[in-house]
Amino acid sequence: MEHHTDEPTELAALAGPLPGTVLLDKYRVDWMLGAGGYGYVLKAQHLELGESVAIKILRDDREADAQTLGRFEREGRLVAQLKSEHVARVLDVGKLPTGAPYMVMELLEGDDFGKLVKAGPLPVTLAVDYIMQACEALAEAHGHGIVHRDIKPGNLFLAKLPAKRSIVKVLDFGISKSARHYDKRLTQTQSILGTPAYMAPEQMRDARNVDYRADIWALGAVLYELVEGQLPFDADNFAELVIAVSTSPIRPPQLAPELRSVLERCLAKDVDDRFSTIAHLATALA
Question: Fewest CB atoms less than 10 Å from the CB: which of 49, 80, 235, 267?
Answer without folding.
Answer: 49
